[in-house]
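User: For a teaching handout, I'd like to show students what a predicted protein-ligand complex looks like in token form. I'll give you the sequence and the SMILES for pyridoxal-5'-phosphate. Please answer with just the structure.
Assistant: Understood, here is the input followed by the structure.
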Amino acid sequence: MTYTVMLQVSKSDDTFLYRQVIDLISENIDSGTLRPGDRLPSLRKMSRTVGVSIPTVRQAYVELERQRRVESRPQSGFYVRYRGGNAIVRPTPSYAGNPISLNCRTLMERVYNGINDPALVPLGIANPTMAKPAAKALHRAMKRVMARAEERSIGYSATLGEPALRRQIAYHYLDTTGVQVDPEHIGITNGGQEALLLALKGVASEGDVIAVETPTYHGLLELIDSLGMLAIEVETCPEEGVVIAELERTLQTHDVKACMFSTTLSNPLGVTMPEKDRRRLVEVLERYDTVLIEDDVYGDLRFDGVRPVPAQFLGGGARIITCGSFSKTAAPGYRIGWVVTDRYIDKIEQLKRSFSCSSGLLQQLTLAEFLATGDYSRHLKALRPVLKQNAERMAALVSEHFPADTRTSKPVGGAVSWLEMPGGVNAEALFDEAIEAGISITPGHIFSPCSCYTNFLRLSYGHPWTERTEEAMRWRPFSAATRARVCRSPRNTH
Ligand SMILES: Cc1ncc(COP(=O)(O)O)c(C=O)c1O
């Protein structure tokens, strides 16, 4: 929007004219007359309005830009910059400002403790491979590698990873999507999380604003926070992913350094962005000169076996760094992930060297063998139907046992369901009770920097389906989770 600003300067005043223009615009910004994203009048119009020369106005605008109060956009003009407020929030955990539990552990820590406790029914962890572990085939692959590679297998790997594994990953893209990826553009990392870290460090710095889906993977929010960056949520549709028009609006009004979106089977919504939207996304990134860190760690896990083409490979994807991982599909404990990028690969190599030197060579050689023999593809073929069946079992139990007004995502892949419970439910209180009852679940709070999913839960079906799972799904407080819980919940904000 362009605003007409009422300005007056006094030529008899001692203050430089351009300074007076600056003061007047600043006053309009401070009073809210000019708001973030508003376009300042053109140089010509402003010069006419206030009766000073065009160079004087230009000088004022340039100084305001230097002060970071406004920004210039090519062929468009000067716009008021965003300077904080409700829309950008530090992704500190959602309980900030609320009493911390007596044992002084944060909610995120409590969730991770639940996830890592083998005694609990694991409805809280997104670990799809657990549903049909590939342990035996991987052990066999590792044995073959050790027999062949002997001393080499205990050595250091090259910084960007073992060439054989980079080649196998490139071949896997070709095989599943028809896309030709240069192995030189692939860098091996310590899991998907390090891929996201290296990508983010490679393109953004402390204080930068990063656009994320809402809800989004909590590990992403922790990462953004630990790097001193800021997260801004972009409206996300449960059927199609990030709403591109909303993304554009965000990019127009905020100085967004990078976006971090999952294009396939996002966590926790499980949504896959349609190809037409991926193409629009690429266009928008280009237009606003913004980077996308494309989280694709679930790309291989659609129940129908169709692997969508990552946005990077749809043409014009030079600004995209795609992050993958074997954690969700083969072996989370191996901690092997990767980045794909041409433009940023040298930067990522330098960061990788300084942070972790390289990733474990034995795990890389084992995975290269696992892929090369076709065992990986066979394993995925066997894993997907198990996950699909588990998802159906979970959906049936939710509809049978949870409150009637519970709404749930309809997973088409991956390992998690996203549930909206009745409005009065506090998922954090439910989480604490569930832990007491021997069940781990993930409360919605941690999937947003602003605590807006307090009555949501993420439940995982990525584990062998047993009697215990059924019992856990029938746990009485799930079905009793109605508005009556309002009075028990100290933090009912939704
Ligand atoms: C969406 C998403 N991205 C990245 C990761 C990190 O993957 P990794 O375990 O390979 O570090 C996870 C793990 O839960 C995830 O859910």
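For the handout, you might add this sentence: The CA atoms of residues 303 and 384 lie 5 Å apart.
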